[in-house]
Each structure stands twice: as C-alpha cells, then as structure tokens.
C-alpha cells in the first residue's frame, strides 16, 4: 500500500484520510493550524441539495446527505450531525422562483413538500406567526446541519485508530516534484516529507499550499458573515430560512444567523467583534421572527471565505501534467465531505475513476 500525505484537516481532508486509512493506506495528515481550524470551523453547514445545479451536482450533494446518514450504521451514533429538516418561506417577489425550485426538486425525487403556516408553527412554535404572514412554506424533512469540527475530529480520530498520523501546526510550503511527478512536500520550517502521493485538501488555500509547484485551480471565493446569539429561550429544532434572515441551532440554546445581503457589508480585513453594527442588526432581524428571545445581543461574529472553484462546482481529482497529486476543493463541503472522502479514496487506492465525479475534474480548468 502507498504512503499518502493529506494536506489540511478540515472536513474534506479528515474524510479522505479516514477512508484511505480504512483501506490500509499509510496516511500522514499535515495541518497548518488544528483540526477544523480553517473554513470548516466557521460554516453555516446546512446539509442539503436544495439549490444545486446542474443535475450532476445535485446528485453529488444528495450522495453527501446519504453518506452522512450512512455514518450512523458505521459509527453507532453521529453526534456531529443533526436532522430536523428545514423550513423556508420567501418574500412575495421571490415566491415564483421558489415554486419552480420546489417543483424541480420534487421532479428529482428530493424530499420537499408544501405546508401551511399552522403546520410550520407546529414545527417551530416560537416563530411569530406574523413573520410568516401569508407566505407558503416549503418543508425539507431530510435537510439538517453539521457540527463540522466535531465531525472532522471524529473522522481524524477514526483514521488515527487505523494508523494515520496527524501533524498539526505543520504548514506545507510547496511540493517536491521530480520528472513531472510529486514525491512529497516541503514544509514552511524547511522539512521535506516524502510520499507516493499527495492529496491537497486545503480549501481556499489550495494554491498557496502547492507553492507554485502545481497548476493553479482557479477559485472565486466569496465572503460569508455569521453571527451567533448567546443561549436564548427558544426551542428551535431545525434550519429556518426566511426573507428576514436564516438561522439554526448552534448548541446549548445558541443560534447561528446568516443573511445573504449582510455578506456584502463585511470584508475579511474588517475587525470583527460582536458589538459591530452589522451583527447587532442581524440579531435585531432575528427578534422579528423570534420576539420571545429579546432583549438579546450578539455573542460572536465571524467573517470567513468560502472555498469555491471558479465555476461554482467542486474540483476533485488529479491535475493535468502532474502525477501523484490529487486536489479536493469545494463549496458545500459540510454536505459533500463524507461522500467525496469515500469517492476520492476509492479512486486513489484503486486507480479507477468514479463516474459521479466525471463533471467535477480540475482538468476542466486547463482544457
Ligand atoms: C459562511 C459559510 C457558510 C457555509 N455554509 C455551508 C452550508 O450551509 N452547507 C455546506 O455544505 N457548506 C457550507 N459552507 C462550505 C463549507 O464550510 C466548506 O466547503 C468546507 O468547510 C471546506 O472544507 P475543507 O476541508 O475543504 O477546507 P478547510 O476547512 O478550510 O480545511 C483546510 C485546512 O487546511 C489547512 N491549511 C491551509 N493551508 C495549509 C498549508 N499550507 N499546510 C497545511 N495545512 C493548511 C487549514 O488550516 C485548514 O484546516 C459554508 C462556508 C462558509 C464560509
């Protein structure tokens, strides 16, 4: 069995490390910070395939949802994943689009149905009825959310039980390339680590980690702004999406908030603190939906960057002209990681190509 280096211990790196180690591969995971210390640690992490096109990308996300569910059989319990579904209502101007989306998803056998306000309030009794108004509500019973760091730790621990080695605080500065083939990596501290194959799972840092020694996979990252409440008196059990803001439970009574238009009000360079106007505004919006939690202030705010390949789709596989090198970079990694980890490990170990990944090869950027 080959020696393989996985760079990065987010949800993707730990998923592929677990599957490789399970297949008997000698795996070393090199992580610049700590397990889940990158984007995975700051993610809304809604597991779904609600708005994923084209069809192959929708199917890939459904495979991710199924893979999360299947981990229950493998691990006995999956405390990192929460079901509960998702409810969604829209402003009048967006309802035609929502209707078309639900029809398309039903056509694709995705679990979604229309419910009325009374049924929505039975699911989430703390929501103010007037926040929903007369909006039709879409109910996605199989959606859920992930605690990505808990998941990544579980995958890494399972990999280590199968012999994988984890080295944290080990930053990769580039690849060792000889005769068009990767032979290992160079670390920022000047060390060389040799391996038969290198899997780059550094997400938004993919091109920095390869240090100019591999073709650049073009990324089009976007900024995400998340706000967290302190524990609040509300019994929210699921992901809620509304024209006012989106939110979900985040443990111990805390809620995590996201609202698309607020992303544009922040930058990664901006000092982020819970007292910032943008965070206060988001929590105020939330109290329009959950008046029972007022008065409340944000407990934390985070600005982070989504690792998105230029065309919005996953980039999974070898890159042209460089042997023994495999890249995994994607948005929707909270949903996709258990499926992508298993598919990638299968490809790396068997040398075959999974048809599910055919449309997501990095090679499309170099044609
Ligand atoms: C605001 C926001 C909301 C999101 N919402 C959702 C959602 O609702 N549903 C969903 O499915 N997905 C969502 N995502 C996307 C999802 O979080 C990411 O796709 C996923 O976390 C990416 O995981 P990763 O393992 O590829 O990357 P990361 O978690 O970033 O892991 C990469 C790791 O590599 C390490 N690293 C970096 N450089 C080096 C180096 N040179 N050497 C060694 N290690 C290095 C980093 O420290 C990090 O730990 C969201 C993302 C954001 C930002």
TrEMBL record:
The keyword Oxidoreductase applies. Its EC number is 1.-.-.-. It comes from the Bacteria. InterPro entries: FAD-dep_OxRdtase (IPR006076), FAD/NAD-bd_sf (IPR036188). Pfam families: DAO. Residues 3-346 form the FAD dependent oxidoreductase domain. GO terms for molecular function: oxidoreductase activity. Keywords: Oxidoreductase. One of its GO terms (cellular component) is cytoplasm. This is FAD-dependent oxidoreductase. The lineage of its organism: Bacteria, Pseudomonadati, Pseudomonadota, Alphaproteobacteria, Hyphomicrobiales.
């Amino acid at each position: 069995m080959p020696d393989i280096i996985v760079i990065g211990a987010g949800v993707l790196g730990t998923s592929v490390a677990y599957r490789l180690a399970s297949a008997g591969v000698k795996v070393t995971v090199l992580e610049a910070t700590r397990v889940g210390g990158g984007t995975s640690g700051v993610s809304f992490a809604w597991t779904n395939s609600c708005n994923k096109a084209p069809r192959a990308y929708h199917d890939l996300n459904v495979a991710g949802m199924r893979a999360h569910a299947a981990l229950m059989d493998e691990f006995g319990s999956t405390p990192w994943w929460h079901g509960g579904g998702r409810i969604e209502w829209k402003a009048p101007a967006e309802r035609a689009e929502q209707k078309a989306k639900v029809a398309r998803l039903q056509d694709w056998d995705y679990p979604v149905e229309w419910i009325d306000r009374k049924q929505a309030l039975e699911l989430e009794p703390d929501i103010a009825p007037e926040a929903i108004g007369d909006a039709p509500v879409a109910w996605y019973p199989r959606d859920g959310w992930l605690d990505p760091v808990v998941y990544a730790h579980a995958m890494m621990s399972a990999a280590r039980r199968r012999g994988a080695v984890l080295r944290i605080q080990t930053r990769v500065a580039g690849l060792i390339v000889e005769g068009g083939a990767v032979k290992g990596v160079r670390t920022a501290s000047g060390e060389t680590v040799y391996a038969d194959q290198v899997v780059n799972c550094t997400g938004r840092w993919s091109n920095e980690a390869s240090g100019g020694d591999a073709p650049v996979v073009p990324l089009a990252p976007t900024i995400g702004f998340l706000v967290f409440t302190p524990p609040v008196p509300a019994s929210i059990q699921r992901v809620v999406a509304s024209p006012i803001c989106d939110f979900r439970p985040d443990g111990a009574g805390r809620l995590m908030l996201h609202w698309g238009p607020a992303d544009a009000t922040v930058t990664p360079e901006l000092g982020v603190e819970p007292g910032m106007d943008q965070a206060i505004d988001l929590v105020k919006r939330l109290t329009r939906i959950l008046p029972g939690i007022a008065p409340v202030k944000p407990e934390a705010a985070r600005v982070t960057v989504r690792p998105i390949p230029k065309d919005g789709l996953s980039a999974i596989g070898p890159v042209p002209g460089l042997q023994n090198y495999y890249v995994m970079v994607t948005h929707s990694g909270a949903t996709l990681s258990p499926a992508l980890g298993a598919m990638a490990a299968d490809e790396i170990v068997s040398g075959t190509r999974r048809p599910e990944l055919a449309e997501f090869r990095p090679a499309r950027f170099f044609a």
